[in-house]
Amino acid sequence: MSSPAAAPRRRVATLTLNPALDMTVQADGWQRGEVNAGQAMQIDAGGKGVNVASFLADWGADVTATGLLGDGNPEAFETLMRAKGITDAFVRVPGRTRVGVKLVDRTAQETTDINLPGLHATPEALALLNEAVSTLLPTHDVFVLAGSLPPGVAPDFYASLVARLRAEGKFVAVDTSGPALRAVLDAPTLPHLIKPNVHELESALGRPLEDETSVRAAARGLLERGAHVVAVSQGEQGALFLTAQESVRARPPRVHVVSTVGAGDAMVAGLISAHLDSLPLGEAVRRATSFSLGTITRLGAHLPPRAELDTFAAQVEVQSA
Known about the structure:
By secondary structure, the protein is of the alpha/beta class. The protein has one domain: Ribokinase (UDP-N-acetylmuramoyl-L-alanine:D-glutamate ligase, 3-Layer(aba) Sandwich), CATH 3.40.1190. It is 36% helix and 25% strand. The protein is built from ten helices and 14 strands. The strands form two sheets. Strands 5-4-1-8-9-10-11-12-13-14 form a ten-stranded mixed sheet, with helices on both faces.
């Protein structure tokens, strides 16, 4: 008797409209308005969708990265994608991709971000991006729309793309903030997965979420309108994860924080990998939190070995909420 054919491998596409070269400067104990000594610096290809693709590739997922990338300085992005086996489907646009500065203070265990605006997106560039997405539709099952929108892109860009992708039967995750998140949450069709932090959710909904009861109520409202998973990160308190059937809180163990850059992107990647593996919510939460923990213990959007991730996952406290 012949063995059954293996199920086709599911593919993920991430979209980053506003990528950045992340310049991470370690400056322990730096003081505002003073001359400060730095201990180290590194430059990484970044942007939320790029980071998600990097984490997923480290996990072993089949990932394509698309979006808008300046043709004046693409080398770091191209090197990252080659090294990790990420399919490069970026649309090159004239100019240089922006630089984002991350000031890491290990003494205070804090990271200060300085984000510059991205390249202006022309109608021609957006038309090419639309063609790139159309090319990916037949071969990709999951789409992650992540990060801010550069100048020239309407606030409802993600909202419109969510409706298009869901109509094609794709699983869609969104991680953004500001007017873009507000437009996504106001739209008739919501993504399957939404991952704001509590402050981003408050801003998008236009009301304070003063306690966990109000956060849960806001998340349930999104679930009732068509979202499948809502993950609300709350810093050191952990994160709240809700589906229509259950809600849990994940409390991470204390670890030595090197940099918080990319922690939220790692959580998205962990949730996407859990979706690919059809994990129940509790296991998905442990994996997503382990991705975040693995990230904040090092610089750059890179996962530690699986054994280390498994150790972190085992230490995550998951409670019904």
